[in-house]
Amino acid sequence: MNIVCLDMEGVLVPEIWIAFSEASGIPELRRTTRDEPDYNKLMNFRLGILKEHKLGLKEIQATIAKIDPLPGAKEFLDELRSITQVLILSDTFEQFAMPLMKKLDYPTIFCNTLEVAPDGEITGFKMRCEKSKLTTVKALQSIGYETIASGDSFNDLAMIQASKAGFLFKSTEKIKADYPDIPAFEEFDDLLKAIKEAL
Description:
The protein contains nine helices and seven strands, in the order βααααβαββαβαβαβα. The protein is α/β, with parallel strands linked by helices and about 200 residues long. The protein has a domain at about 1-15 and about 70-115 and about 130-199: HAD superfamily/HAD-like (Rossmann fold, 3-Layer(aba) Sandwich), CATH 3.40.50. The chain is globular. The relative contact order is 0.18.
């Protein structure tokens, strides 16, 4: 029994924080897990910038409302879901992900949640579990699934390496160079073909 575990941002949809950085004109918010492996450090850095600029959930959600899935992502996901179970594992937050999941016909997503004050200020975040992607892949394996994983960032490497097959998708040149043993793809058709071969 197989289950495919996919990262969300950078793989199926554009990076939310990069889109918000462009919308808000705050270049520091362009940093993502492609640049910073320590997710807690990255999120605390982001929350500090939001507080400094008096920006909250409402402003970020207004940007997210304008984001569409990457070209071909929905068709890729539809075909993949027609042949195997698919689970999206993301370090994003429910408050960010749900509008995007609607545009992808509501695939199952495991992600985290934001702590939001009544005035909309994002005061903190609650991670679903420690090392959420790797922990989830190991949990799936413990109940009889073989996992196939794909992602683009530092925080995807552990789940990719722990799976029976794993692929980088639209990753950075640095990550591809540092992990030459992981097959890397740029097009959905190529990723789909590789996953089908691994099933």
